[in-house]
DNA sequence: TAACGACCCCGTCATAGCGT
DNA sequence: ACGCTATGACGGGGTCGTTA
């Protein structure tokens, strides 16, 4: 007889979900949610762009951290002499946006994991409470039965 | 031991919602 | 209206355990 209670649990790190309910895809959060074996691995798996100076010209995060000197030749060099500045600006803007979103995604996942862990803890606590209450009820019933007899 | 599935983490894109 | 942030969705790469 579980009533649909709001899932506002007493978690310090409750996730503020603005975009609707958390619908956890089975691929990502199936299983025990143990912290990965690989630990922190910032290998930037999607690489290869960095060497393709002729393509979209995405800059790496490290390139952005170091100002203009680390810009790819095609971008920085051209912008110095030709009216390519808007292009370079757009690229830099895009890279900044990507970098921010990357970090936002990381933070979002961290919060979600914490939230799920919190919920799991809460479930464990409630299950224990439930067990205790059932046991208590049984005891009281016993006492009552003996009194009636 | 290669193949495979399950799981995890990541980066990116799309978009809802909020503040200015 | 516009920019920004948070988050769902998607696809890719890595690791690990299992199985033929």
Report on the structure:
This protein has 149 residues and is mainly alpha-helical. It is 55% helix and 0% strand. The chain contains four helices and no strands. Helix 3 crosses helix 4. The chain binds a DNA duplex (20 and 20 nucleotides) through helix 1 and helix 4.
Short descriptors:
149 residues, mainly alpha, rod-shaped, DNA-binding
Write the layout of secondary structure elements.
Blueprint: H1 26-29, H2 61-65, H3 73-81, H4 85-148
The structure holds a DNA duplex (20 and 20 nucleotides).
A few lines on this structure:
The chain has four helices and no strands.
Distance between the termini: 31 Å
> What order do the helices and strands follow?
HHHH
Gross morphology: rod-shaped
Query: What structural category characterises the helix and strand content?
Result: mainly alpha
